[in-house]
Amino acid sequence: MEFDExxxxxxxxxxxxxxxxxxxxxxxxxxxxQIDIVNELTYPYSDExxxxxxxxxxxxxxTLLPSEDKRTPLEKHLKIRGLVKATxxxxxxxxxxxxxxxxxxxxxxxxxxxxxLALKSxxxxxxxxxxxxxxxxxxxxxxxxxxxx
Length: 149
Hints:
24% of the residues lie in helices and 35% in strands.
């Protein structure tokens, strides 16, 4: 089955520079939600590795249904109870692919108790349908830089 959109949450740990990529899957009530797949990239890593894991995670979108468990995939992966603890010292970025617009990388600002809010659209990075080698990694790193704790 082909989908018009795919979404990946990327968390950047400001303490150890590790990256966590989490794909989304279909959800009856919310449209899409994170699914129980976490691809961790341990620092140090190259731009090629960032792109490899980003594309791998995009391809994992819609392969599972979201868990009914109240714990998020990041909480389970880190073996931490509570979203606030799991997202402590973590910036968030969204990687989207849309049939009409192509690749979009969005920086987020941390708000409330473990939640995130997208920064204004002038901070979004549009790459179009064809991402040249190195472009996606550069956009992800720029979005992480723009993201706020």
